[in-house]
Amino acid sequence: MLTKRIIPCLDIKNGRTVKGVNFVDLRDAGDPVELAAAYAEKGADELVFLDISATEEKRKTLAKLVLDVAEQLNIPFTVGGGISSVEDVDILLKNGADKVSINSSAVKNPDLINQLSDKFGSQCVVVAIDAKNIDGKWKVHLVGGKVPTNLDLFEWAKEVEQRGAGEILFTSMDHDGTKNGFANEALARLSEELNIPIIASGGAGNIQHFQDTFQKGKADAALAASVFHFKEIEILQLKKELKSAGIPMRV
Questions:
Q1: Is the N or the C terminus of the chain less surrounded, counting Cβ atoms within 10 Å?
Q2: Active-site residue among 45, 130, 176, 220?
Q3: In which pathway does it act (predicted)?
Q4: Catalytic annotation on 130?
């Protein structure tokens, strides 16, 4: 059985790591380069680095910051935010990223998924999906959750897989920052309907929530931010407890 992964997420705005609740009310969480180095040392399996205002502000991801972060790491590193072309990805991979995450640009130009997968390999391409449960249906949202669409989460996820994405990073906007647990029902359905790894995001508040998302949500990886940034959960302790609960972990 493949080991499950624990992934801290660094949401970047104006060169600083920030964290909010339900995608708003952002507060400062520290220097991204220092945090990245600390997480690599403390047992994180991977890191995700999202320039959260890049799409909204219509600018590219901070390539220089990617370079600075990559120099501190010996673990896989995914970068997202403002990526809309093969050229954007080429720069980020050359600056040290292992994978890229695309979200709004994938919805606006689904063929971009095919292009990136063909050029760099599917293992490089993570499609992030932010969705909200509206009247019992999960609807995809764009631009950091600010723009609703009529796209259904599960239909879009299947298309994303068919187009060559290597992983899906699913964030439940309803759960984001609430620390009430992950959207395990939706995660389990994604895992059952797709053949690529699913990263759970949104809602981590305690160790039990991680256990639940691996056991009930069938997630392949769990991503979190504030519980790690503000040292509410230590990664090594989390992984040890999950391993003792029978979840395959690299400790």
A1: N
A2: 130
A3: Amino-acid biosynthesis; L-histidine biosynthesis; L-histidine from 5-phospho-alpha-D-ribose 1-diphosphate: step 5/9
A4: yes
